[in-house]
Every structure is written in C-alpha cells, then in structure tokens.
Fold this sequence. Notes:
The chain is mainly alpha-helical and 209 residues long. Among the domains are: 67-120; 122-209, no CATH class. Helix content is 39%, strand content 8%. It is built from eight helices and two strands; from the N terminus they run H-H-H-H-H-H-H-H-E-E. It has helices at 2-37, 73-76, 86-93, 98-102, 106-110, 124-131, 142-152, 164-167; strands at residues 175-180, 187-196. Strands 1-2 form a two-stranded antiparallel ribbon. The longest helix has 36 residues, at 2-37.
Amino acid sequence: MKYTAWGLLFAAVLIGLWSTWSEAAEESKRAEEPKKKGGPPPLVVDRSAPLLLDAMPDKAPSEPADRPVADNSACYVCHTNYQEEDMVVVHARENIGCMKCHGKSYAHRDDEDNITPPDIMYAQDVVDTACKECHQEHDVAATKIITRWQERCPGKEDPGQIICTDCHGAHRLAVRTVRWDKKTRQLLARTEEPVSVAPDDTEKPSDGQ
C-alpha cells in the first residue's frame, strides 16, 4: 500500500511535467509557423502574470511635482514684452513673480487709462539696494563687467552710475506713454502716442525717474 501511494505521487509529477512541457512545445511550434508562412505572429499570453484588470492600487505612484513657476499672467495682459525678457523668465522659474518686487498693484492693473503707477517702483539710486536683498554676491570678473558696461550703456561714462539692470536683463520699457517719478509715484508726463526710449537712457540717479 505504501509503495502504491508513492507510485501514484510519482506518476502525478511526471504527468504534470509532461503537460507543462507539451504546452510550451506547442506554443513554440505555433510561434515558429508564421515565420515559415510569412504571416503575423500569434498572440502569446503570458500565463504566469496575473490579470489585475479590476484591481486598483491603494495609492497612485508618487511622482516629483514640477517646480512652481510664478504666475505673471495678469501683468502680461499689458506688458507682453516681458513674457520672454530674461530677468522675468529667470526669476519666474524660481517662483519669484512681478508682485515680489512691484507689489500686488491691483489699482495699477485695473486702470485702463494707465495713469495709476505700480505699488512699488525703483529709482535708479535704489535699484542695487533692492537687488542685493537676494543677490548679496557678484562673482563676475571686472573685465567682463567693463565690457558689458561699454556694450549696453556707453552713455554712462561714470562707473558710479552703473546699476544692476544696466547689465542684467532688459527690464525697461522701450516705448512709453506715461512717465512717473519713481520716488513720489507722481505722474510726470502722459502722451497720446507712444514715445520710444533709448536703451542707454541716462537719467540721473537722483531724479527719481
């Protein structure tokens, strides 16, 4: 009786192995036939992988969120020229938008007559101080600074007049219809037709414009 049980178990194992080998051989044969006939390969089902079509993961795989980018869309409604301006683009990538430097400026944004200034403006003599609140160091070789100065603002002969925005970005309006005193925020001039402003506008640092 004991030997009979072992014999049956051995026979069952042999049958299982034979069945598995036969199935694998049949699938291999079916896969080879299209190659000989030139037809499309058959669909081969991976029977070892469970079909979890109805199973939902407990938690979606976590992906690193993209770095936030400052939303300046409200400003771009009028200031379209700043959408690709270097200083705006670089700061926006660090999630630093227009409002960080110029305030919320809601009244300025809502004024269709364009006579209300932004909440914060920068006269030339305070630009460097404002930039240094975040940029404490300036590790550029003196020769590069001088070259940049001569290229971008040759009208400023005194090095003491050079400010950060003379070399960095193009953060000045090339065409204006209004001009404010940047210290008092008072409207100085308004024109019906846009007036072009030279890139090397050499306003004195103390005039607040």
